[in-house]
Amino acid sequence: MSVQTPGGRQSATWPIGVQEQFKPKSRFDVIRWDYFTENHIYLNNDFTTIQTLKGVDKMDITDILETSLDRLNKKYGRVFTDQKLTNGYRRFDPIRGMEYILDLSLRHQTTSEYTTKRVHLVRPLSQVEIVPMPYVTENSRVNLILPVTRADRDSVVSFLDSYAHTCLNSGDNTNLVIVFIYEMNEAKEDVFSVLKSMSTYYGNKYQNGARISWTSLKTNQPSQLVVMDTVSKQFKADELLLYCTVGIELSIDFLNRVRMNTIDKWQVFFPMGFHQYKPNLIYDEKPYPANIELKKNVGHYGSYFYEQASFYCGDYTRARSEMMTSNGPVDDMLDLFVKQSKLHVFRAIEPALKHRYHDQICDPMLSEDAYQRCLLGRSHGLASQSQLAMLIFEQQKNVDSLHLEVLHQQKDPNIDQMKVK
Where are the alpha helices (DSSP H) in 294-345? Predict the structure, then answer.
């Protein structure tokens, strides 16, 4: 019927409840379509050219193919018995949902001839359930838990400076607890004596609301759960905890979003921070910039890292108690809250959380999922794909130039005269 309307076929609308397509304001806002077949998807991210469809992606494509055949048979009277996917395109529109364009080759039931149809499908977001959330404010005290090992000593100084500048100077409602982790066979000499003195100095200098203290722990396996099992005993059930690591830059915006996104007995928050690439690979010369800029050639959002987490002490204690009764293997806090808790696990990009580059060490004793996640994070954290390709190209060019220079010297007559006969 849309052909008969004043606007023609272009005026056709989707059913009520399905939003209009996203309209980009510039070429930078255009949403890319991903091409796929029944078995593979092409260029779906910046790191792969072709990838086999599996898991939820395979289920998604199978579902829309079955839906397409069913809808076409309803429209044309059950005349198609088989279909083949010639071309498939999909993209995620944040306004309306997942969109699909399919070119289908359909076999007619009586003639066995194939005909081609193009269908448009949308998996809308309009059926998403709106979950009522408890009321929260930005007045809660944030207790930052910072584990420090012998290898982290040099990075702690910059973290303390960042905490002093962001929280201590402004009197923000925060409390930093530094956990100095000693090995079981540690020598009698205190390797953290200087850092303890610094934290005591900051604690005595600033008396305007924000606090800083330290404690110690002896273990040969300083995992997130081991640290939190020790520190959580110092806090009440209704206190907000933020597990963090050295090398991050703190900001008031980030701390406020921790307060808003962490809800007692309801939700825990795992922010996805911006990770800096290795400086000597992305910068041509020293000194390196003091600030981390949010640019694609400077870093990336670490989707494989779950180092920072915020939760209430009571929620952590209950999840640990459930884990003890279930006897299920748990590697880290993400695993704990996903497997052993009924809380919402909220994961979101956090542009105000910036990580300075550090060498990632992957423990092979972790579970297979955690170990592979660590390896992926380490490989993606060196530099962008284009930067690594350029470095390899420059290195190969230097090798080729050196090789040509050697060949030229071998043909030089002066070189021949110098050779011993």
Answer: 313-326, 333-339
pLDDT in tens, 201-245: 888 888 878 889 999 988 877 888 889 999 999 999 999 999 999
Residue 43 contacts residue 116 (beta carbons within 8 Å):
no
**60-to-46, 55, 304 alpha-carbon distances in Å:** 21, 9, 23
Under a CB-based contact definition with an 8 Å cutoff, are residues 32 and 24 in contact? Answer: no
Tokens of 144: 């930052």
Type of residue at 117: K
CB-based burial of residue 381 (10 Å sphere; 0-12 exposed, 13-18 middle, 19+ buried)? buried
Task: Specify the pairing of strand 248-249 against strand 267-276.
Answer: unpaired
Residue length of the chain: 421
Taking Cα atoms as reference points, which of 282, 279, 281 lies closest to residue 297?
Answer: 282
Contact 357/274 with Cβ under 8 angstroms? Answer: no
This prediction's pTM: 0.70
User: 222 preceded by cis ω (within 30°)?
Assistant: no
